[in-house]
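Wed. Picked up where I left off yesterday with DUF305 domain-containing protein. The coffee machine is broken again, so keeping this brief.
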Amino acid sequence: MKKPLIISATVVAAMIALAGCSTGTDGGSMPGMNHGTSTTSTQPSVSGTEHNAADTMFAQMMIPHHVQAVEMSDIMLAKKDLDAKIKALAEEIKAAQDPEITKMTTWLTGWSEPTAMAGSHSMNGMMTSADMNKLKAAEGAEASQLFLTQMIAHHEGAVEMAKNEVTDGKNADAVALAKSIVSSQEAEINVMEDLLATL
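Structure written out below (tokens, as returned):
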């Protein structure tokens, strides 16, 4: 019984190593996501498989966090007569976070970790069902103001989680993504605060 297990583990390890190579090149091609592909290309198996509890928690928590940000953006993009700057921001958030969701899901699968955390865990910046319903119901300038206010809080929560990963994480790719999230979302917070001041 042990022999098939050893073979299957070897196959899984090889697949993970290959996945590590592919995620490294994908990340390098995205704007603002160039986080040292030379490191991942020289040691793909290390960055692809080695991880700790902080890496797992970061991915498991950031996935639903990103999913909600994409949902909030979709809500805004479905509204009529949406301000062009708000539309561009919502599209930018979707374009950045959709591929990151896929990337983190792939990592968790490669690490043989569940893609969702067991039990309920509170995450800073997450909107409640009531918050989401308010955003859906709002129109015009009110919708734009609400979206910006909610998304600023949402981004601040993501930045906090990402900073924890930078401090405590082990996986090179996960730490690099966390650093990218900190820089990109802090920049978007500044943009949103400026937009909010003009509404």
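Quick read: The chain has one domain: 2-30+47-198.
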